[in-house]
Amino acid sequence: MTSRKPIQPSSLGLIVLWLLVARPMHVYGMQKLIETFGKDKVVNVRSRASLYQALERLVRNDLVEVHETVRSEGYPDRVVYAVTDAGRAAAAQWLRDMLRTTGTEYPEFIAAVSVLFGLEPDDARAQLQERADRLAAELAETDAVFAENPGLPRLFLLEEEYRRALRSAELEWVCSVIADLDAGSLTWTKEWLMGLFSEHDPMDAHPGKDTP
Predict the structure, then answer these.
(1) Which of 63, 99, 101, 172 is the most buried (most CB within 10 A)?
(2) Is 123 exposed, middle or buried (0-12, 13-18, 19+ CB in 10 A)?
(3) What is the pTM for the complete model shown?
C-alpha cells in the first residue's frame, strides 16, 4: 500500500483549518466570518465554491470531517464541518512554515517588471502610474479600516499593518521608477535592446553548438 502524499499548504486551507479549530461550522458561517474579520482581503472567498473545493480537499486528506448535518424546515440542509486531530497538527505546521519561509512565491508584478522593456517607455510609465494610483487608493482603504476599528486589538489587525507596510514600500518604489522614466535616466529603444540581446546571445558564444 502506497503512502499518501502530504497535502500542499494553501492560504485558504490555512484559514479554513483555523476557523474550524475554533469550532465546527458550516460553509455559510465560514464565509461570513472571513468577511466580517476582513480575511476576504487575504483569501478569495467571493465564490462560495472556492470554500467548498478547499473543504473537499481537506476532507479527502483527513484534516477535516463532517461533524453533522443540520436540517431546518424550508431551508437546504447545512453540513457542519469539524477539524480532525491531524487537521489541528497540519494547521499549526502550515502556519509555522508560512511564517518562516521566504522565496517560494512568484508574484505576477515581479515577472512583469522583469520584462518592462516589452512596452515602449511611455506605455510602461502609464501602466506604472495606474498601479501607483491603485496602491494609493488601497492605502487609503487600509487607513480607513484602522479608523473604523479603534478598539479592535492589534492581533486582529496585523494583516492590515503588513499590507500597509508592503503597499507603502511598493508605492515609494513605483514612484521612483516613474520619476526616472520622466527624467529619461531609465529608458530603452528597440535598437538598443536588439544590440544588447545579440551581445549576450549564448549561441554566439558557442557557434555551431546546440544549447544544452
Answers:
(1) 63
(2) exposed
(3) 0.73
Residue type, 192: W
Rounded Cα–Cα distance for residues 142 and 163 (Å):
8
Give, for 196, the enclosing helix (H) or strand (E): helix 190-199
The pair phi, psi for residue 66, each rounded to 5°, is: -75, 125
Q: What angle do CA 22, 24, 28 make, to 5 degrees?
A: 105
H helix or E strand, kind and range, residue 147? helix 121-148
pLDDT band at 150 (very low <50, low <70, confident <90, very high): confident
**What is the widest separation between alpha-carbon atoms in the chain?**
78
pLDDT in tens, 16-46: 999 999 999 999 889 988 888 778 878 888 7
Query: For residue 53, what is its C-alpha cell?
Result: 473545493
Which residue carries 479600516 as its cell? 145
**20 near 87, Cβ under 8 Å?**
yes
- Say how far apart CA 158 and CA 145 lie, in whole Å: 12
Q: How far apart are the first and last CA of the chain?
A: 39
- pLDDT value of residue 16: 92
What is the per-residue pLDDT for 171? 96
